[in-house]
Amino acid sequence: MLSCGAARIEYNAGMSNQHTYNPPFTKEQLCSDYHGLGMSQAEIAAKWGTTQKVVWLAMRKHGIHARVAAKRDQKGSKNSTWKGDAAGYQALHLRVSRLLGNPTRCDVCGTTDPTVSYDWANLSGRYYDIRDYLRMCRSCHWKRDGTINNIKHMKNRKGGSQ
Asked: Is the dihedral of CA 18, 19, 24, 29 positive or negative?
């Protein structure tokens, strides 16, 4: 933990610029929030009712170096854009791949050929249920979903209309 002095900066409710600098916290409070509690500049600003720029300027004035920006734990409901079960089709499939990994074998035909593409195939249409997926090679997946029949139907339709 970095050591921070207890110098008090006078607070003035008037205009603030490089000549009239006045944050509503002490250097000690800033260090405690930033280094002790691990708060971001924006979080400190919200706590003290000021802006991130005022926090940044106070840090610069007191020689407090900013941390390198690092990703925080933003998984699941901790993410501000989390939609839960209301997520879209693609997001739900990506969630399955992230949680279960990429499949490397087919549970239907048993193939493990590394040149074959494998998918997580949803079994009942309950895309939000992580237990409702099965590893399948692309061929078995398409056969199960009826994609093969749709492709054959479209080829016949195109071939017949020309």
From this structure: positive
